[in-house]
Design goal:
The protein has about 200 residues and is mainly alpha-helical. It is built from ten helices and no strands.
Length: about 200
């Protein structure tokens, strides 16, 4: 199916708007939990929801955030978008999560949404990223360290699997933004105070 520029633009907008739906805030409101933007780490993400509401709330948040990245990319696959454009669709969903238009542009750190997008673009790359996260989490028991290492390696995995330069650059941009969102975690890791 030939995709026009208009259809691609609409998909980018849809991906951003879907990413802008903050699963953590919605889940916390529905489950009568504190606002994750003002309690715990003040981050609307699954790890903070785990602190505030337990495993069930965190699992729903994690799944919702991942689906925000996965669904628009799968739609892109249905439209036969090339890898580079799929990367841009995933990036739009990721930006929506970081800067949600529905929540004063105060979003989460983007780990689950980035993973959903990566998995949708290339299941093998997504598998490598997930294995890295799980392995580092098993060794360190630190979620943020696992996310940082997985994010750092994601562009290399994309290059290994796809050899697509433009997609690798998009992935690198996503990884840099994700790492920057973890600045406070990096400082705590250096100080040895990270949970």
């Amino acid at each position: 199916m030939e995709v026009t520029s208009l259809i691609f633009f609409v998909l980018i907008v849809v991906a951003y708007l879907l990413g802008s739906i903050s699963t953590a805030i919605v889940v916390c409101k529905l489950m009568a939990l504190p606002d994750p933007r003002t309690e715990g780490s003040n981050n609307p993400g699954a790890t903070n929801v785990l602190r505030l509401g337990g495993k069930k709330a965190a699992a729903i948040t994690l799944a919702g955030d991942a689906l925000k990245g996965l669904i628009p990319v799968l739609i892109g696959h249905m439209l036969d978008l090339p890898l580079t454009l799929l990367g841009l669709v995933g990036f739009a969903a990721f930006l929506g999560h970081l800067y949600p238009v529905f929540f004063q542009f105060r979003g989460g750190k983007g780990v689950a949404t980035a993973f959903g997008a990566i998995l949708g673009i290339s299941w093998l790359t997504g598998g490598l990223v997930l294995f890295t996260w799980l392995f580092v989490a098993w060794l360190s028991k630190i979620s943020s360290l696992s996310a940082l290492i997985a994010a750092t390696l994601a562009p290399f995995y994309f290059w290994m699997v796809t050899a697509n330069f433009q997609l690798t650059i998009v992935s690198l941009a996503m990884s840099i933004m994700l790492i920057l969102r973890h600045r406070s975690n990096i400082l705590k890791l250096i100080e040895g105070t990270e949970d």
